[in-house]
What does this fold into?
Amino acid sequence: MTTALVLIVISLAGAGVLLLTRRGGTFSAARGRGAEDALLRQLLGMTLGNRAAIERAVIARQRQFPRASRTELLRMVLDEYRRDHARD
It folds into this structure.
């Protein structure tokens, strides 16, 4: 009886840990999407809504940095766009 109770408690604790770590992963992913959305909105404003130009720039950067996340690529594109248009 005691052994069964201990096994149940350990199982529930393990399930709780899995749920907590899973929930943390979705929160961090949501934050990443929020950052990605913010960068995309900034780029759309700067390019007058030219999403195709943004995607071409992201693809070009992705060829240079294949392991970079989309958020990092968008940040690179935004930095490049700001640098290029600061001269104007």
